[in-house]
Amino acid sequence: MPEKVKAFMKRKDIVISAKRYGVDALGAMAQGLFATLLIGTILDTLGTQLGIGFLAEPIATVKDVSYTVGGLASAMSGPAMATAIGYALHCPPLVLFSLITVGFAANALGGAGGPLAVLIIAIIAAEAGKAVSKETKVDILVTPLVTIGVGVALCAWWAPALGKAAMQVGSIIMWATELQPFLMGIIVSVVVGIALTLPISSAAICAALGLTGLAGGAAVAGCCAQMVGFALMSFKENKWGGLVSQGIGTSMLQMGNIIKNPRIWIAPILTSAITGPVATCIFHLEMNGTPVSSGMGTCGLVGQIGVYTGWMNDIAAGTKTAVTPMDWAGLILVCFVLPAVICPLINMVLRKIGWVKDGDMTLA
Q1: Terminal Cα-to-Cα distance of the chain (whole angstroms)
Q2: Which of 111, 144, 257, 268 is the most buried (most CB within 10 A)?
Q3: Per-residue exposure over 37-65, b if at least 16 CB sit within 10 Å of its own CB, e if not
Q4: What H or E segment, with its residue span, contains residue 80?
Q5: Domain-by-domain residue ranges, the chain?
Q6: What distance lies between CA 262 and its chain's CA centroid?
Q7: What is the pLDDT of residues 140-189, one digit of tens each?
């Protein structure tokens, strides 16, 4: 790359790297989803299940479409994802605000696979906007025109295909899980669980692929195995603060310790390989709420709220008659009890053979 181009990109803070796009942007996109689609779903669920009038009843009507508070939040998921991505890419204000339009267009044209379209198109539009930002005396016109122009053009060109591709991949995973629940229960649970602990976003991945159904249930199992597993087996080092921060927050906090001693990751991964097929084969645990919930685990109990929301959706659709005791038993055992028992037991074996020792999982 010519030196002038390198200098220009450095001045514009345009960094083409896996970390910037696959970690920073993807993680920010998940936060945008959480603040809109996920919160909107939770608000709607609270409103309908607890009979809270101002949450259950429509508060706005746009072109004959009625929206609740949660519905309004969910409708803004595209703009929120794109803006969050722009924030992660250090976009100047005019670029950041212009991404609102880009996100809306990408999510709308991408259909059910909209999050993947938003991720790819928002990144390109953001970098294009950053490249021209403050380069002219009419920046207030040029920067939004370039950002929105590039973004919307790519939306019309790419978004439908990207959305279909994402949903096709997700459909294949879900189909394979239905066909081979044991094997795919292990694979999906382990892979999504690992993604949860890595500094990438398992929630954004599940959302981009539209991962629901039995595969979504396996994903929930894998995430819970990581979060509850690390929280319990590191209790000696981190006490109650660590239990809450990892069990209700994120197992990503252990990433620094994993780099120092990768063997501490063995117990949670093996646990997810056990709880995944338990979820798919024994309890037939399905996630039919929002796909983003499949990759959240016990973070704010979002995974469990998503499963419950799915039950309510199925009942409303007539595909499920009622929530059974077996449903509740499966949810509680897969998400909490089994990881809390299995993971520390495996870790005890690892401690006895000297692979894990005191202090290996102490949080900074």
Answers
A1: 40
A2: 268
A3: bbbbbbbbbbbbeeeeeebbeeeeeeeee
A4: helix 77-88
A5: 3-159, 180-352
A6: 24
A7: 999 999 999 999 999 999 999 998 998 899 999 999 999 999 999 999 99
